[in-house]
TrEMBL record:
Protein encoded by which gene: modA_2
UniProt-recorded name of the protein: Molybdate-binding protein ModA
Keyword terms, alphabetized: Metal-binding, Signal
Gene3D superfamilies named in the record: Periplasmic binding protein-like II
Signal peptide: 1-24
């Protein structure tokens, strides 16, 4: 009997140590990296209006977050930086289709280090020999990378620019490469560029083949559906939209 009791205690302790802290949270929101600043402000305001709810934010590349949810990671809400990542989530049946809504828009921009002496004013300038390294998100996993690839392909520049490519795991990493002067230029969202105005400057606004829109949805495995629904409603509300606008996001 004593041996069984000790075994039970050991198993319980092991499970407690193994369980991710996020499982104990009131509300887990997995959101695209480009939403970092805006969603921190949204979550802060939401918590003030809902003191019984604690919001845990998980930021990353949209496709990576989607795969995390597919593999069982805790998440009540998923916010993606493009429609394709959300489409994949829908195909994997990890979101509630009826809850899907577009909540923001953005723009793709070409940025260079603030102290750059290269005359880069348009994507075509990236093909010059003086430009050696260009950062952009990995198109296979990062929405900003897909927007970049599609825009450059439409302009007949993808092969030439991608040959100089420095793929990033998410848009914030691409931004960091440019801000630190590790690359000559990079493609990021306008809202990301605005977070470090002293380190990067926008060289050009890039037309995209599809609008840069952000969808949000409840996950099919939401542990706190009422709070998740409330958070999505807040993001879509006038107050939530005003917070997003202050961080440079447009309406969907």
């Amino acid at each position: 009997m004593k041996a069984r009791t000790n075994l039970a205690i050991s198993l319980c302790a092991a499970l407690c140590l193994w369980a991710p802290g996020a499982w104990a949270a009131d509300l887990v929101v997995s959101a695209a990296s480009s939403l970092t600043n805006a969603f921190r402000a949204v979550a802060e305001r939401y918590e003030k209006e809902h003191p019984d709810t604690r919001v845990v934010l998980n930021f990353g590349a949209s496709d990576v977050l989607m795969q995390q949810i597919v593999q069982g990671a805790p998440a009540d809400v998923f916010a993606s930086a493009d429609q394709r990542a959300m489409d994949k989530a829908a195909a994997e049946a990890v979101i509630v289709p009826a809850s899907r809504r577009d909540f923001a828009s953005n723009a793709l921009v070409l940025v260079v280090p603030a102290d750059s002496r290269l005359e880069i004013a348009k994507p075509q300038d990236l093909t010059r020999p003086a430009v050696r390294r260009v950062a952009f998100g990995n198109p296979g996993a990062v929405p900003v990378g897909r927007y970049t690839r599609d825009a450059l392909a439409a302009a007949g520049l993808w092969d030439a620019v991608s040959a100089k490519g420095v793929p990033a795991q998410n848009v914030r990493q691409a931004l960091a490469y440019v801000a630190r002067g590790e690359v000559d230029a990079g493609f990021v969202f306008a809202t990301d560029a605005a977070t470090v105005p002293d380190s990067v400057k926008i060289a050009a606004r890039i037309p995209t083949t599809t609008p840069v829109t952000y969808p949000i949805a409840l996950t099919a495995r939401a542990r706190n559906t009422p709070a998740a629904s409330g958070f999505v409603a807040f993001v879509l509300s006038a107050e939530g939209q005003a917070i997003l606008a202050r961080h440079g996001f447009g309406r969907p």
